[in-house]
Amino acid sequence: MFPLLRLPYLCIQDITNMWELIDLYNFSILSKRAKRISRRKKENDSTVKLEFDYYSISLYRNSRVVLELPTKQFLSDRSQFPLFDPRMCVLLQTTKHLLDVFNCSLDMRDWRLKPPMTKDQLIMMIDWLNGMENEVKKIVIKSATWEMLELFMNRFQRSIRKLYIRNKLGHNDYKSLNFQVKQLFLSNSSKWFHLDFLFSLDCDRIEMYNSILTEEDLNMFLRSWQEGKTNRNLKSFEFQTCSDLDIKKIVKDCGAKLKDPRTTKHEFPHIKCLKDRGNWICGGIHIRGNDGRLAILNGYFDYVEDKDVPEDLIEYYLECLELWNSGIKTWERKCSHFNFF
Hints:
The protein contains ten helices and 16 strands. By secondary structure, it is an alpha/beta fold. The chain has a domain at about 1-40. The strands form two sheets. A 13-stranded mixed β-sheet has the order 3-2-1-4-5-6-7-8-9-16-14-13-10. A hairpin with a 4-residue loop joins strand 1 and strand 2.
């Protein structure tokens, strides 16, 4: 057998740099020294993705899978969702090892915070996350009981880029977020999502669906932003409510002005917040903050500056203008979006 570890360190580095990633990983688990030698320089586009539905661990680079570890040690049958058992400890240890070797961030998918997982097991996993040095890039909670979700929200202490909560929860009252979400907070079922919680979010983007927030709640949110009190980092806020809301009540006493999409167009500087919608916002309801910043409610998105506004949008604007100027008629919608400049 070739005495690899007896070579000078730089020679070993040159050799291991030529290996396939799976060979590098297998070498790294031989010993502490092998792990230290295998450790790569940090790459911002690299992520270890841990998917709980199948207990799979994958390394991604530029959104492409470059290494997928065998799951036989965790699962005997990938077609079945496994119960929470001691193999989870092995899964977490393997994930941590991969994070250490490839020096990248963690993306947790399809996390189910409910039985058969116990509170003690959830606490173990949260403490594991809190204690790691690597960045936690994204957490996706697929389902949860309210008690378990509240435990996670109160005990988790890391700053993360994105948090997705895809679970249906009842009318609970959770006051504030105790950790920082930098880029995106998304909740598919937001009946637990109250005004105080909205105030506590200081991320770039919020997506809130099936919400029970009222016109008065959203008006208070807008006025608080206008006065510079809360949500200072917010660039985009999409919301869908369970019932129709009157747009005019949402912007009441905020100095709002409805703009003609044919004559008013703004380039949105935070293009990543718009997904595939284009970076020009036409028309919409304009609200100025006390510091001069601009918020646009329900603007029309376009890809180019000088493109003609579609006829159907002009017709819609004229209908909205009639509602806007009416002292009697309401302007009701369930889905709306703010963009903040």
